[in-house]
């Protein structure tokens, strides 16, 4: 569903992405992990067309994204730090996006209801707390039933209740056969969700494995421990 | 009109600066016309005021607005919308609202007090100057990520076109007064949209008789309908070129 070929990107002298090759297919739930500044967010933004790669290409559903913009209809994106126009209210933002997309398809307002956002519709974005902003981001990401969900640190800043709601939601969507790409530092959170792990370091993909392979290779039962094991061995190398 | 432009215009109209700008322009123009009994003299005063304030407000307001829209741009970019459409919509939104301000503030008094061809030309020139400086704002805000730098570039460009350029031209005129540089001067004015607009209007007011030999050469060029068409084509280029450069840069910008 998503195909990344020999992707390179530098910001000035800093090489952020160095020859990334990845393929994700529908039904996968991929955890993108790695230390701070390893290029996770840049990779995600490249898939969304927000960052223009220096070299290489990305295909979504077999189509090159560099010439296309319609493909973003299929992607729900939840940014790490959602930035919204200060003067608009939650209601305005959601109405505006609905209006601009003007789709006829049924909207998925489950999160909108579960996060009780309707009662806050006339609050301005600038007055919201970080967690509430995250709730808005999550709602927008799931709103149009996208086939691909890209979630950048989805549970950071959410309270336990909200983060549980979001996790449940991700599991439901995964069961519908959608492709889900998550970045997170909280390894323990991922245990019940993911099917594949992509580990990045210094702009390179160190490995891309299924959970079963990873567990076999390290002999650990929990994903978080298995990953910690791999991390230790990469650092010692 | 597309939906994004609608949201941008609504957002700009909510902004009190544009309303104050409209009020300021209308106070200026109404008072100029009611103080001067001769509408031609009124036009002259108004011309100078407009050529100072309109570029200033257009360029600064647009630059700041663009920087403040970075969140809005980011939000739209994750939706299935073409990059160029986002940029075009921002441009349209700003141009339409500033034009509206200009028309309400200056256009209405002109149409009442001086509804002749000079009045119409003044309106056109005002609209062109607003658009040109919005276009310049687009270029300066895409050149740098730093808001303070971007606004700085805008202010310097305004200073250059509004004040410094005239100084340079005067200096050249005095230094080279022994040579026949009148024709060259026409070419040099094309490098500054404000001067171009000023000379175009001046030569259609009665005062042009007082401008000496250079004035006569200018009149030969700007007074003809071909001259007017050429001037408006140059003004159009002043809109298109900075905007086109900015959109090329925006298409490859990382957000």
Describe the structure.
The complex is a heterodimer of chains A (237) and B (255). Chain A contains eight helices and ten strands. Chain A is α/β, with parallel strands linked by helices and 237 residues long. Chain A has one domain (2-236): P-loop containing nucleotide triphosphate hydrolases (Rossmann fold, 3-Layer(aba) Sandwich), CATH 3.40.50. Chain A has a six-stranded mixed sheet with strand order 6-7-8-3-9-10, with helices on both faces. Chain A has a four-stranded antiparallel sheet with strand order 2-1-4-5, covered by helices on one side. With 255 residues, chain B is mainly α. Chain B has helices spanning 3-14, 16-35, 39-68, 70-77, 83-113, 117-143, 147-175, 182-189, 193-202, 212-222, 225-251. In chain B, α3 runs parallel beside α6 (117-143). The longest helix of chain B has 31 residues, at 83-113. Chain A binds chain B through residues 11, 45, 48-52, 69-73, 75, 77, 79, 83-88, 93, 96-97, 99-102, and chain B through 3-4, 7, 11, 14, 68-72, 74-83, 252-255.
Any key phrases for this structure?
A: alpha/beta, Rossmann fold, four-stranded antiparallel β-sheet, 8 helices, 35% helix, B: 255 residues, mainly alpha, 11 helices
In brief:
By secondary structure, chain A is of the alpha/beta class.
Largest sheet features of chain A: 6 strands, mixed
Strand content of chain B: under 5%
Characterize the largest beta sheet of chain B: strand count, sense, and whether it forms a barrel.
none
- The CATH topology of chain A turns out to be Rossmann fold
Q: Determine the mean pLDDT of chain B.
A: 89
Task: Tell me the strand order in the biggest sheet of chain A.
Answer: 6-7-8-3-9-10
The strand count of chain A comes to 10
Structural class given helices, strands, pairing of chain A?
Answer: alpha/beta
